[in-house]
Amino acid sequence: MNYTGFIFVEGGSEIDSSNWRHPEIVDIVRRSLAEDVGSGDVTTDTCVPVDLIAKGVFLAREPMIVVGVDLLPILYDKEDIEILNENGSCVSEGTEFISVRGSARRLLTLERTALNFLQRLSGIAVMVSKFVKAVEGTGCVILDTRKTTPGLRRLEKLAVRAGGGFNHRFGLSDAVLIKNNHIAAAGGLTQAVERAKRQSRLPVEVEVRNLVELEEALAAGIAHLMLDNFTPELVCRAIRKVAGRAKVEVSGGITLENIREYSNAGPDFISVGAVTHSAPAVDISFRLL
Amino acid sequence: MNYTGFIFVEGGSEIDSSNWRHPEIVDIVRRSLAEDVGSGDVTTDTCVPVDLIAKGVFLAREPMIVVGVDLLPILYDKEDIEILNENGSCVSEGTEFISVRGSARRLLTLERTALNFLQRLSGIAVMVSKFVKAVEGTGCVILDTRKTTPGLRRLEKLAVRAGGGFNHRFGLSDAVLIKNNHIAAAGGLTQAVERAKRQSRLPVEVEVRNLVELEEALAAGIAHLMLDNFTPELVCRAIRKVAGRAKVEVSGGITLENIREYSNAGPDFISVGAVTHSAPAVDISFRLL
Amino acid sequence: MNYTGFIFVEGGSEIDSSNWRHPEIVDIVRRSLAEDVGSGDVTTDTCVPVDLIAKGVFLAREPMIVVGVDLLPILYDKEDIEILNENGSCVSEGTEFISVRGSARRLLTLERTALNFLQRLSGIAVMVSKFVKAVEGTGCVILDTRKTTPGLRRLEKLAVRAGGGFNHRFGLSDAVLIKNNHIAAAGGLTQAVERAKRQSRLPVEVEVRNLVELEEALAAGIAHLMLDNFTPELVCRAIRKVAGRAKVEVSGGITLENIREYSNAGPDFISVGAVTHSAPAVDISFRLL
Amino acid sequence: MNYTGFIFVEGGSEIDSSNWRHPEIVDIVRRSLAEDVGSGDVTTDTCVPVDLIAKGVFLAREPMIVVGVDLLPILYDKEDIEILNENGSCVSEGTEFISVRGSARRLLTLERTALNFLQRLSGIAVMVSKFVKAVEGTGCVILDTRKTTPGLRRLEKLAVRAGGGFNHRFGLSDAVLIKNNHIAAAGGLTQAVERAKRQSRLPVEVEVRNLVELEEALAAGIAHLMLDNFTPELVCRAIRKVAGRAKVEVSGGITLENIREYSNAGPDFISVGAVTHSAPAVDISFRLL
Amino acid sequence: MNYTGFIFVEGGSEIDSSNWRHPEIVDIVRRSLAEDVGSGDVTTDTCVPVDLIAKGVFLAREPMIVVGVDLLPILYDKEDIEILNENGSCVSEGTEFISVRGSARRLLTLERTALNFLQRLSGIAVMVSKFVKAVEGTGCVILDTRKTTPGLRRLEKLAVRAGGGFNHRFGLSDAVLIKNNHIAAAGGLTQAVERAKRQSRLPVEVEVRNLVELEEALAAGIAHLMLDNFTPELVCRAIRKVAGRAKVEVSGGITLENIREYSNAGPDFISVGAVTHSAPAVDISFRLL
Amino acid sequence: MNYTGFIFVEGGSEIDSSNWRHPEIVDIVRRSLAEDVGSGDVTTDTCVPVDLIAKGVFLAREPMIVVGVDLLPILYDKEDIEILNENGSCVSEGTEFISVRGSARRLLTLERTALNFLQRLSGIAVMVSKFVKAVEGTGCVILDTRKTTPGLRRLEKLAVRAGGGFNHRFGLSDAVLIKNNHIAAAGGLTQAVERAKRQSRLPVEVEVRNLVELEEALAAGIAHLMLDNFTPELVCRAIRKVAGRAKVEVSGGITLENIREYSNAGPDFISVGAVTHSAPAVDISFRLL
User: Fold this and answer.
1) This prediction's pTM
2) How many domains does chain C have?
């Protein structure tokens, strides 16, 4: 039941296979299968003999990171599963990373559901790992956001970890993060911060849109700033201003093209919504042997 | 309760707002909210006065297609929602397409959950519409696949429709689609087709990997062929061979760059997994007024 | 996860015991038990010693077909079950077809729930088998309908198969079946067919009420006709008119008394709602040894 | 939330429409709809214009008793329903007993699910009413059993009431009912009765198979006897023996043919499993106007 | 599936460990765990090495009765559990009554959820046992009420049994219990009793507030009377009046201080709401070895 | 969706009535009703005329704090509810704080379920308010713990707020709280703190058992200390040692008798498990008018 919440900054906690047995995860896996099967797999049931036993392998069709193999026992309840590459492994194109043996019909009926999970989660890990690599040596940490797929947050946060990133807030209850709209509703940044600090002991992060707001946040004693939609150059100036008084997180408009420039400016964190809302799936196939 | 299943080929059925009231959709919306809220929205609850009434708008940050606005009444149960642009509308950057009025706290707590649905569904529609535009004039129809996000298939299939695409099978029970692994398990393409035709009256589609298999499928009387991972040139040759005896669907490795070349070859359908498994989210923001 | 949908016409797919492990079936079995047990089995808990171990048998009280034995492991989670006659077996009066050994209390508490499933499903299979026998030699296939017990469709369709019948549509998404009301709403049979064919590639079946409609359906290119409430004589004339251009299904008012006359007319299928909506339960008892 | 349990002997409690809003009933209605709709109603969605408004009526195709009309508002959430004949009304062939007005597509998609409930529940009420009529004037009360359809007990018990019958135990926790197997497990009828009486204050009923057991039950002070599989003549002798010391219930092998003979013998109750496990559905149709 | 309903008066039925596997109990245990874990156990996941194996013990911090140990296998699905003192055992301060061995992280994450069940259920049993002891030798039986914690009734009724008490009604369907409000609504005690007796064969208990009502209830033939908020002296007079014609239950305002005085008056039962609505938890700790 | 998590220290966020509409709360209310009703309310259904309309009031039988009135609309879906005293109001004995008007049967059937919620939640608030009053003037804040009733945490945390207390962690994911067992598993207090601080940015609180551990915790830079099972005198010494370097929370063995002595020592917080695990219910009755 690994914690997938507010910013593990060094090393993080090791991901434990018990994470993938969480009741909500078991539930989403089962509902996904039902969604696909409907009244039955007409192709398999007509084409494949009922008593045929077969072996199948999941095969990387491009270099990828293995994520989600611990979900397979939930799907294949009577089949034998052999996990050849553990969660988090980087594998090259052509690698067979899981093998399953059992009723040929079952293997074929479950194929697409298994692939839909594996491809999406691996896609996230791969995109994360590219951002991680792009900032290598700068000490900057890649974070995810709450811009996850409805219903899959727990899984996607685990995929971010598998890719070398860390997790920002799991949800709205983990930490205070004061944004534009909160500032507007509270009648000002200082007021918002004061209200939050007075009422809660959770960490308070403030999103600032310019150097004036940044000064105001520092004056309010904020130790974790999010620079929203700053240019790399402005990030440099901001970090000089902060001068170690707060952790600095850069957010908004980050791409693989510009992240190095941002990380060179020296922020502690860069958070990237794209890793969960826009990561393309990796190509994995299932082959019956 | 619109049908989102096997290939609507002309006009399709109009999407009905009752689709978005399906019990499974209500369920996923509620679970997503619970996933985000956890034990409560600490930021909003500390920063925002409990009795502040406000108005907020959802705002396109880039040109996009509006999808999923019918989900909002499920989230905002006591607030007033005004849908300014109906499902399927194309709107330009800066358009305010929904406005909501009610408790400021509620508006802020529900913001991210609403955005996560709207951004993802719109992203799918936008990608579909690019593929549709790319084949304009060729008569070729863009189809989705079963490579959807676990738990969101029904919603994603509706987004494909909003983008101008059509729906291939909803799931395994809609039609027979004989692929590699089925052929292997059945002991040959002809055997697989015979078994399927003998046992079911549903449409039978066969995936072929080369012209030899294509001949075999035509000989077996198949009226719907999927050409898997063919080059555009090979598609041309295949369609000449088919000579109208079957509908032809092209699948595998289709990108915005190469789809025009493929569609020029004259297939009836091109199916694109990327529209559901790899569509980047569009940028939408929520602004409190 | 056997397909229970659109008309398996020859041989059908073998029923696989994994069918009975479908999550929805597990769910209905558990809910039925809770429905019966309420706050506890007061009779058993007062009359039967807590540590008594016993053996019990399920016993056919009339000749019957065994259906649903694969449900028993869902109910008896700690007891030893021995299935003496497999799903689909015909057994004579007096046959003990399942034996269970374990806590006497558990055996007695679960008795009625188990019987309610077994008796109903067997009742369906038995009625189906009578219709199948009545048409023997004519080549006519007995089909079920969607007139099933709410919540039990998947189970009842499996019982139809166990009795030698085949499955028509599982539900509304499997195939187009244009009936009276659709024709009225579409503004005519031809219009309805055209709309359906233009928009979907699923098989289209049309229900006709007389020879005029039959001609119209054939003219519209329909390959599967349902003759609704025709007399046997009219079925003869219809089939002569069709002259092989379409499969012919007879429906409406079919009884064991008149089915032979209908089948002699030569239709491909006869569908009988009564097998699921009006099959009397067979008599099975549970006897503690 | 009407009580549907242990033997209402005179007048019973009036059935209240709030019974039909029980959470479990709402749940079974919704699941049944999902079961039928699958990925959507392909026929309606292709044939019927999306904006067509229509009116439809439910029509008795044979004389019947109206049961379950209170379920319709659960299905038709946005349509206008007019109930023309209340729950429990006897209507003649041709009666339109409910009318619904709204989206033509919705009316057609929901038709079969509504009919499956109405036909089954009415079928039960009709069969019950025949048994009630058969014993008219004898003072004998017709009871149901626990031999109900899995998942539908609450609904079926309400249907029994609509037909003029009364409800025996709702489930295992309502009353003690000592049968064969309990006697065997307890080591004798007297022992079973003693154990039950000592431990519970609920009513105790004992099933006896012959006059010897009947004597033993009376000696044990039992005030409610079930005569299991007795001939009418044996029932006469039993009742003379009982001489008013206990209520007498006749059970087992009761048919419409023999029930009068049984009731003439003077039992207080006759319980008939067939009314729930073997009642044929009545014929109801839905007609779009 | 032990019966937890209407007044087991002597010996009761032995509690069976299968009671604790009821689907509703499994469900509440899982929901409670999810409630506590949220997005993960941040303390354990950061402080405790992922591969540390440990042993832990549940330890009585005061003399107590062990209740609910059969719930632990539901929580600890992969760990080894050793139950050292069975359900219902009285243990002294310092007793280690359960030991668990497995992943240290799992043991710590599950600790609080396990303790919350064990402490509450034991607290109930302990309070019950004090009431039982206080009436020792008088033959008076301690009963619970329906004043239980929402969602936990089944568990709390089992805890009452473990403490030596017995169970009154499980819920509203077990027996008729006519109270003030019913009498008011029925237009009088006699009318209420008549309506109930005419319509149901379940046991009828009547709550009376004074000797006049008591006379009226006896005149109406009631065999089970509840004396509501009587003084001990009035209970004496009431019991003399009853003179064995009915079982007498005392209810309302019972405390450990006054119960002996009440029981000396000779009632058959005393029911105590406090045992479920106001029992303080016992002190149990979990210690990692 | 009010936050019920980590220590609101001043003023707290106002409780919003939308809190009581959380899906999990709706769910527990409905399940509790089903738990009580079973197969129906036999008393009400026999004694009370079906069409009787009545008014009833909830009445404080002792001075109490009103909590949970917002739950009533979930239960009484068709009745008129008038809330006469808002959530959090202190009312004297005899106050009618809610009135309901509707079907007499409905009012009586729902009575116990409503009372079970109101009595328990008010009981918590009352006990909290006594602790709050006991520390009045010392500036010390009363906190709850995670020792809540399984399944009711969200409700109980709201009750604590209604009583003037504040909420410590909602669950395991809100903050790091290092206890004995974590220290043991981590190999020492300093190691545990370092692991936690390195890996998470959430607030870290440490439980210390003596002044040596307190020193170690301060040396490790901990700003929130929990003194576990300290005497009041030791608390004094501890607070002098801390000298403002950390917030101090006292926990363990706190009673109404000794809390003043503790609070006089000057801690910031005192957390009391008893308010949720051992608060006796308040006495509320429902009276039909």
Assistant:
1) 0.91
2) 2
